[in-house]
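Annotators were shown the component list below and the corresponding predicted structure, then asked to write short factual statements about the assembly.
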Amino acid sequence: MKAVIVIGDGMADRPVRELGGKTPLEVAKKPSLNWVAKTGVCGVIDLIAPGVPPGSDTAHLALLGYDVFKTYTGRGALEALGSGVDIQPGDVAFRCNFATVDDNFTVVDRRAGRIETQDASELARDLKKVRLKKIQVTFKNTVQHRGILLLSGPGLSARVSDSDPHKIGKRVSEVHPLDDTVEAKRTAKIVEELLQRFHEILKNHPVNAERKKKGLFSANIVLCRGAGALPDLTTLPRQYGIQAAAINAVPLVGGVCKAAGMSLINVRGATGSYDTDIEAKADATIQAVKSHDLVLVHVKASDIASHDGKVQQKVRMIEKIDDMVGRIVKNVDMGETFVAVTADHTTSLLTREHEGDPVPVAITGPCVRTDDIEEFSERACARGGLGRMRGIDLMPTLMNFLGKTEKFGA
Amino acid sequence: MKAVIVIGDGMADRPVRELGGKTPLEVAKKPSLNWVAKTGVCGVIDLIAPGVPPGSDTAHLALLGYDVFKTYTGRGALEALGSGVDIQPGDVAFRCNFATVDDNFTVVDRRAGRIETQDASELARDLKKVRLKKIQVTFKNTVQHRGILLLSGPGLSARVSDSDPHKIGKRVSEVHPLDDTVEAKRTAKIVEELLQRFHEILKNHPVNAERKKKGLFSANIVLCRGAGALPDLTTLPRQYGIQAAAINAVPLVGGVCKAAGMSLINVRGATGSYDTDIEAKADATIQAVKSHDLVLVHVKASDIASHDGKVQQKVRMIEKIDDMVGRIVKNVDMGETFVAVTADHTTSLLTREHEGDPVPVAITGPCVRTDDIEEFSERACARGGLGRMRGIDLMPTLMNFLGKTEKFGA
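Structure shown to annotators:
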């Protein structure tokens, strides 16, 4: 028996006026998602707890079966892991953005106009030249404005605040220690110095001069957030004796999966954006199931559409996810494969934020206790046979179907 | 966005033979409660955990988002707070009843025939004269037979038992320490001495002589229960950055709300009894919503009807609550207000006690994920889109709608 988990990032939503009071999932044409619901058992999931808006990282930790209150150590380390940065115990990593500030260090754009990866790479090349005493600095840009800052060396702490003020129109925050330790104070100071030196390099950089000419946002600062150290997880192979793989284009999700002992499968054409090659992801999943017990496939852009408030774009992304699910279920042996579909959180098109509303889930496969739900959506699944679950319960539920959970007791 | 929570005390029930196997909620005419269900999302709530009968204090603590197993410190302190008694850390407070005992200290009536507040006040005046060495004694009668005893001074403990045997026909219990500490032993001894002295004053009191003449129960003893110290709560303003108010006529509930950082709004005509002025409570709620993010309005008498086994009275009280909800939803801006209706526990007309059965809940407001439930009742709501929740999850659920919960993760 095998299992595939399909995660539409931020796919769940609230009723939207523009859609006649329906959610994007409710209006999307989604024959394959509905097929999973109809042939399977449905429910809703509170990823962390009712009302608590999850991040993509904590949500995926929960969906992989981890207690986030005990294991979560910040975004930075997970994103570093997922970006192929070699993070070791004791290191501290940050998620970074290239951003745009004015002369007063007030943030004008938090993503430097979603700068193209090529421009960002050219800028990053010069940031990598910065050296500090005793501390090894690694800066890696990933996709578009996104990047990783890794500090390695003795006496570091992840208990430091963000320089990212998280809002346009606010000034860049000073990085301060979040506890009274020498390590936190020292780390905050190091980061402050480093970001200052980055700014010196960026503000007069030829790439930015060129961007200004073109009327584009200048990537004149690096904002950092989510300082984190490596989490201490019992991997899925160790926990359940399975081989597991993840297919996704987002470093943060990849990092969670890697920390859980899953192998990361890179798919050409998987972009983490609207143009992602959904067929390629489906085919990679179909291939991966042959050599793994569990395959997680994650699609990002449904979340991006919500953050951008793009209603029709979100509906279309859900329809793309539906296509992907259709291709998967037609091409894996459904006589021995369980397919679970869910989201990692609700992202509201209205508030453009992650919200704490539960997400729908449907699981099809051999001998699940089917219910009478025939539609994959927030409201339909709420009436399903799985009832209301927590995120942490999905993995044991699937592993139980696969015969991989151990009896507790005699 | 604002939120109103309407709590019908003990409003939930079990099917009643006298009502043709229906519950009081099921037979009551309740167009407004049904409107909340129909336009909203429904569910059932286990206040503490399935099968555990909650007190009004623990139920309200849970509904305000607190883990009762970690925060509950006994009824006395909460009731003292709600009665305007100035309780400080280290103090121990008891909920008290004026009651009637025979010559063998067997309880004849636990409420001295629900003695009028005026008679109780006259008796209390003389109890207030009692002095002890090193310990400051405060006795305050509140409504009818109800009162508060507060002990202030060094070396006290709330770990002492009740003198109230909780049943008619039983003898008054000796107050004993509930742990091995010197403080608990000392406190038990102090309370015993004090209650003895109260009895001496009461048994020959002119007020009681007069009551006997009229054929009324003599309030010849004070029964105490629920020894408690101040709970240590993170207030709602601190937790969510909101302003919150509570409208109710019951000191115990008021105390919980005050401990949670809510301001208490006194409403003329709110009696905590069948004759409570429901219009005045509705109007106070409508007014309070203007200056607060969250308003809790509590109606007591549905619970009293159950404790008294009065079936029709309970149905009528539910209809009064329905009137109140109708007046509220017609007069607040429902475009920016969430209204949640629930009960703090099931009180069975048959057993006349709090029971551990879940209570119905319905939440209406902008962009909730409506379900197909059209009736506010125990059985109808159990099929609703919220599923089965815990009491502690209601507040995060509402605060999520108000955009007041913080994202956990990135």
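Statements collected:
1. Chain B has two domains: 2-72+232-401, 80-228.
2. The longest strand of chain B covers residues 92-101.
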